Protein: diguanylate cyclase
Amino acid sequence: MINKPEQTEFAINLMQHLVTATFVLDTDGNVIIWNRSCERLTGITADEVIGTSNHWKAFYSNHRLCLADTIIEGRTNELDNLYTVSAQPSVYGNGYKAENWCVMPRIGKRLYLAADAGPIYDNHGQLIAVVETIRDQTDQKIAQKKLEELAVVDELTGLFNRRYFNDHLDSEWKRCAREGSPLSVILLDIDYFKQYNDNFGHLVGDECLKSVAGTIQRSLLRGSDTATRFGGEEFCVLLPGIQQKGATKIAERICANIEKLEIPHPTSPVSQWVTLSIGVACILPSENDTPANLLTLADEAMYRAKAGGRNQSFCAETD
Ligand SMILES: Nc1nc2c(ncn2[C@@H]2O[C@H](COP(=O)(O)OP(=O)(O)OP(=O)(O)O)[C@@H](O)[C@H]2O)c(=O)[nH]1
Structure:
């Protein structure tokens, strides 16, 4: 049986040797524990910070609050400003989590750190300390970023995303220029989608986007036709080798198939169902023109479809 002081010593010893970087502040914001992992992570020794409130110097070059300080000072409402990447109440008890890139002043490295901080109370519910643990998530963050960069599919709709579209447009442009074949683009935008979201909520809005995306995809018959979620409630179809007449036909087919879905849109001034405004453009790619110009033409045509009362398609004059 170990007595109270021995128990305390044991607990401190345990914390010193934890694999996770950990430090503890008293209610004045002074460091009372700075474990070995924390020394390794920050390059700052316990001797330098114990009894001081200089712990911030391990993570930042200018004075600012750390996660544990916000709990001690009752300033957790400032977390959103302090941690740009994320900050949210922890799922464990009454602690907080936050993540940030830090340029570590002592070791001179840029690290992505995930911090958890939790208050410690005595038997009377009085705050006596705050413990903060820090995990170096730099490798995971870099890997995640690389994966995101490689991703070409829009998560919600399963269509290709804009990054893919940009690459694909460039290569199809070059191919069509080589072969002397036309390249068409259809831009599609859901009418009064803000009102739809406002009326039914964002989740129903997401379902609507999925239905519209699926219908656009199913309306394309050739393997070389590509449907993309351009962003928000805007979609784009790229049609290599298709003339203006063919592209207009496909646009009309998409429009008709969307109408058939009969997705109720009671707050739309133009129809009781969800409808699209569509811009079509076709170009014979050449060295004197650019893919950006094709998109601009389609965008202007879509704008005219909107301005003309929505729920219609408009074709850019390029012939
Ligand atoms: N549910 C949901 N809504 C989205 C998503 N992306 C964008 N939106 C919403 O789409 C709406 C687009 O609004 P606006 O650009 O004003 O366009 P609009 O209301 O369709 O008006 P018009 O295009 O002029 O007919 C905004 O309310 C966005 O919040 C998404 O992924 N899910």
